[in-house]
Structure formats: structure tokens, C-alpha cells
Design goal:
Number of strands: 19
Distance between the termini: 77 Å
Radius of gyration: 26 Å
Helix content: 25-40%
Shape: globular
Strand order of the largest sheet: 5-4-3-2-1-14-15
Strand content: 15-25%
Oligomer: single chain
Largest sheet: 7 strands, mixed
Number of helices: 17
């Protein structure tokens, strides 16, 4: 075999931006003209996931035009690029090997994921044939993403004596996903003794964050190269009779903390959502609490302080401490900061509502009205300035419904929607390690929505460390209430939390999209019916168990 150079192009491809994606591919081919192979991620031409755009004839026509342009541009090298491909009436998730205006090989993805956030069987049918091509004496096999998570596709390639496998991927981020990928690659290499070049997409797409972290693993299962997390990058390796060698030392494997990974993923998601959707910047309510503090830090790191507008909206229950801390964080981070009191708006609402509320007692209606006054104000600023409102609620609050429709849920993107409250505190301390932008008092004081005198979140909820553990078991792992109670949790706490999760599905269905970082987010991952009486069955099971134990 002659030595060949392989370039991994870990780039950010926008869904539907076929022209721009194609230009990016061609520019990369020209930049790495000395490479033999330049590899792009899964469905790079269309971006991933293109969803129902795949049903459009005009969309499909642009894809084929793009393939022709890329094939013509691949003059000195081979372009290995992902795209949808129709054969008769059947649509495939495909990869083509393009060179000098021709397609040298094409492979159709065999394993189509239909779980969690994936819905590929709605659009594609599975391929059945191996994809193999030869270049400079190297027999190279092709796989696409999910294929690698199953033993059979690579085993089938190994039976045809390939020297190397190339896997194109659009694998979204979640906590510990990188370790899962490493394990899968090591498993496949141990089964076949075939080196793997794994190229992943990088960028934010609605609720998904593609974190890059492309990998090269040799036939011994050793990691040769590791591209950065949540950053676009290109890296080249050399393949010859002695194996694989990295040509750029900056992409040597390295350790990275979990909090670093999570924070970078959240920053990338905000940056891409705002910029790809054409907003001039973001607006958010800065309350002096931990959630809005972390949200603003993420926004500034994603977009720059000049693109962030923070608004404090005090009411009679807002403490001076909250007002001081919000102003201090805005000063430290250099953002535009305004204070707009909501009491006049609230009083005007109450005056008009007084005849309708006659004879009733005060309850959460009045509390929610405060949040709705703030939400209306933020949306007005958004409309006037063409900025995007960021909601600041966390996963714990969203799970149990401690959020107000048309109030603090107003907005277009929810950066910490999938971040449990306990993790919000960890991220605040993590961000302060670089620079103390969040006042210490914001982190250490008991959380409160400040919608009533001396209100604390824990007045009506279990402690957040307990709440988050219950939510992890019930929401992310589908444990039954009885199973959770068996782990030592208080029965009353479990029943209360489970009930709150179940009755607040209608709120979550109307909430803003936000980045997925956990194993199961409130979005495509978890699709529960709003009208759902299964919660009564769950309560009966717990009651029956309690009755049996008493007897």
C-alpha cells in the first residue's frame, strides 16, 4: 500500500443551507488539496436532521446539484460526503466517494435509529450492501453513525478484508456520550482488529448539540487522534503499512472535565440558535437568582456582551439583595442593563380584574400575574429590537411545573431547559473559576421566585438534591413510583413529585426549545400524552403496596 493522507473535516453544517454547506465542503477540499481523502459528516450537504424537508422535490434537486459541484471540485483528492439519495421511490441516508466528476462508490446506511431524538425510519429505508472502495492499495469500508453501534455491519466489512473503516456521524451530545463512543469504537476494534476513522458533526440544531469530538482509533484500540469538543476543526492523519499516525500534535487525545463539556455544549447551542436564526442578540430577565445568572453567563460567552440585554423587573417582593446582585453581575459582564418596575403594570391589571375576582381569595393567580407582566415586557423589547428572549428556567422547575405559561416561560430559546437545578449550581461555580462573574451571594442564598413575602422554593418542594434524584429516576429512566420508594425515598415526596411531573405536560408542550444534554430531555426524547390518566394507576399501585405492608 502507498501511504495516504486522510483529513477529518469536523465542521458545522446548517440544516437546509445546501448552497452554503456545499461551498464549505468545496473550500475544505481546496484547502486540503494535498490530502488523498477528505471526510465530511453524515448528511453534511443538507445538515442533520433535515426532517420533513426531505419530502420536498425542490430540496432534493438542490442536493443532486450540490453533489455534482462537489464531485467536480474533488480534483486532486476524494470527497467522502454524506447526503440523502433517492433510488426509484426509495430514499436512503447515504455517503458518496466523489472524484473528478464521478462517484467512485456509494453506501446506504443500514441501521436507522428510531429512538430518543431520532426518527430516521420516517424518511429512509435501510441499505443492505457493503460500501467498499480502493485507493492507493488501501481497501476502505464505509459506515454511517448508527451502523457502528451494532456489530454486524463492521463484521460484514471485515469479512471482505478491508484495511480501514470510515464512519460518518451526526451524533448529538449528552452527558458522558464521549465515553460511550470510545467504548463502542474499542468494542468494534477488538472484534475486528480494523482501525476506525470517526468523523462527527459539530454545531447546534434546535434542541440538538453536535459536539464534534471526532476520533481515530488504530487496530490495537489505541486512540491516535481526538478532535476538540464543540469546536470546528480539521485534522490530518497518515495511513501506511505501519498503521496510522497523527500529522498535527494539537489533536492528540486529552482529558476534559465533565463540567467543561456541558458548559461548552450550552454555549454552542445558544450561539448557533441565535446566529443561524438571524437574531441581532438576546434579551433576558435578570432576577438576581442563580438560573438567570447562569443563563446570562452562557449568553455572553456565546455571543459577546454587546449582544446581551439584561432587564431587572422588580416588584414589591423583590429583595434589595436581588436587585444589587443582578446589577453587579451585569456590571461584571459588561452587558446592557435596565431596570423596569412591574408594579404599575400589575396594579393596572388588578384594577381591571377586580370586578371579575370579587369574592375570591388571593392565590397563585396573583403570583402568576407578576410573571406574566414580566414576560409581556420582555417580548415587547424583543419585538422592537429583533432580539431573542432567552427563558431562564431549569429542568427541575420545568419537570414539576414551577414556571408560568406566558410569563417566565415566554421566549424563543431555553438554554438551561435540560439542566437540573443541582447542576445549575455546579455550572455557576465552574464559570466563576475562570472569572468571578456571578456574585457569590447568588450561589449561596436559598433559591426563591420572590412572588410572595419570604418565599423559598423548598417551602413546597423536597430539597433539590432529593428532587433531582427522584426526577432522574422517573423522567430519564422510567422507574415506577414503587421502585423509587424502594430506593429509600419518602413516599409522600415521590408521589408529590410524580404527580407534578404528570400534570404539567401541557406546560412543557408549550415551552421554548432548549438544548438536550441529559439522557432524556423534555422534547423529542420524551413524548407523553397531555391527557393522561395513567398517574391514577400509579397512585393506586403505591396505595395498594402501602396497604399490603400495613397488613
Amino acid at each position: 500500500m502507498k501511504p495516504i493522507t486522510i483529513t477529518l473535516a469536523q465542521l458545522d453544517f446548517t440544516v437546509g443551507a445546501i448552497t452554503r454547506n456545499t461551498e464549505s465542503i468545496i473550500a475544505t477540499l481546496q484547502q486540503y488539496a494535498d490530502s488523498d481523502l477528505v471526510i465530511f459528516p453524515e448528511l453534511a450537504i443538507t445538515g442533520y436532521p433535515p426532517e420533513d424537508l426531505l419530502f420536498r422535490d425542490d430540496f432534493e434537486k438542490l442536493v443532486y446539484q450540490a453533489l455534482d459541484k462537489i464531485a467536480a471540485a474533488a480534483d486532486t483528492n476524494l470527497a467522502i460526503v454524506g447526503h440523502p439519495q433517492r433510488v426509484g421511490d426509495e430514499l436512503y441516508n447515504s455517503v458518496s466517494v466523489l472524484h473528478k466528476g464521478k462517484c467512485l462508490a456509494r453506501y446506504h446506511k443500514q441501521r436507522l435509529p428510531q429512538y430518543g431524538v431520532f426518527d430516521e425510519q420516517r424518511y429512509f429505508i435501510p441499505g443492505h450492501d457493503n460500501g467498499i472502495f480502493t485507493w492507493q492499495g488501501h481497501r476502505i469500508g464505509l459506515l454511517i453513525c448508527e451502523d457502528l453501534w451494532h456489530a454486524a455491519p463492521l463484521a460484514s466489512l471485515a469479512a471482505e478484508n478491508i484495511d480501514l473503516v470510515i464512519s460518518l456521524n451526526a451524533s448529538p451530545y449528552e452527558v458522558e456520550k464521549h465515553q460511550q463512543r470510545l467504548h463502542v469504537l474499542q468494542q468494534r476494534v477488538s472484534e475486528t482488529r480494523i482501525p476506525i476513522v470517526y468523523v462527527n458533526n459539530c454545531g447546534g440544531q434546535d434542541e440538538l448539540v453536535f459536539d464534534g469530538h471526532s476520533l481515530v482509533m488504530d487496530a490495537n484500540g489505541d486512540l491516535v487522534a481526538e478532535l476538540p469538543h464543540c469546536q470546528t476543526a480539521c485534522a490530518s492523519i497518515r495511513s501506511d503499512n505501519s498503521g496510522l499516525q497523527l500529522l498535527d500534535t494539537q489533536f492528540k487525545p486529552r482529558e476534559q472535565s465533565l463540567l467543561t463539556e456541558i458548559y461548552q455544549a450550552l454555549v454552542l447551542s445558544v450561539r448557533d440558535y441565535v446566529t443561524k436564526n438571524g437574531f441581532r442578540g438576546v434579551t433576558l430577565g435578570l432576577s438576581g437568582g442563580i438560573d438567570s445568572a447562569v443563563t446570562m453567563a452562557i449568553a455572553v460567552d456565546a455571543l459577546g456582551a454587546d449582544k446581551v440585554h439584561a432587564i431587572m423587573m422588580p416588584f414589591r417582593y423583590t429583595s434589595q439583595m436581588s436587585q444589587d446582585d443582578a446589577a453587579e453581575q451585569a456590571r461584571r459582564m459588561g452587558v446592557k442593563y435596565d431596570v423596569v418596575a412591574i408594579e404599575p403594570m400589575y396594579d393596572a391589571f388588578m384594577q381591571q380584574l377586580e370586578p371579575l375576582f370579587s369574592g375570591t381569595e388571593k392565590d397563585t393567580t396573583e403570583e402568576n400575574l407578576q410573571a406574566r407582566a414580566r414576560g409581556t415586557l420582555l417580548m415587547a423589547v424583543s419585538n422592537k429590537t429583533r432580539s431573542l428572549v432567552l427563558t431562564t428556567g431549569n429542568k427541575s422547575e420545568l419537570a414539576v411545573g414551577y414556571c408560568t405559561l406566558y410569563g417566565d416561560m415566554n421566549g424563543g430559546f431555553a438554554p438551561i431547559k435540560d439542566v437540573p437545578k443541582t447542576l445549575v449550581f455546579e455550572l455557576a461555580r465552574f464559570r466563576n473559576l475562570e472569572q468571578a462573574v456571578i456574585p457569590e451571594r447568588v450561589i449561596t442564598r436559598p433559591p426563591s421566585a420572590e412572588l410572595a413575602p419570604d418565599q423559598k422554593d423548598q417551602d413546597s418542594l423536597p430539597p433539590y438534591d432529593v428532587l433531582d434524584r427522584i426526577l432522574t429516576l422517573y423522567v430519564e429512566q422510567d422507574w415506577s413510583p414503587n421502585a423509587i420508594i424502594d430506593c429509600g425515598f419518602d413516599e409522600a415526596d415521590v408521589l408529590r413529585v410524580v404527580r407534578l411531573v404528570d400534570i404539567n405536560e401541557y406546560k412543557r408542550r408549550q415551552g421554548a426549545v432548549g438544548p438536550k444534554i441529559t439522557a432524556r430531555n423534555f422534547g423529542k426524547d420524551r413524548r407523553y400524552p397531555i391527557t393522561n390518566h395513567f398517574r391514577y394507576e400509579l397512585e393506586r399501585q403505591v396505595q395498594a403496596r402501602s396497604s399490603h405492608e400495613k397488613n
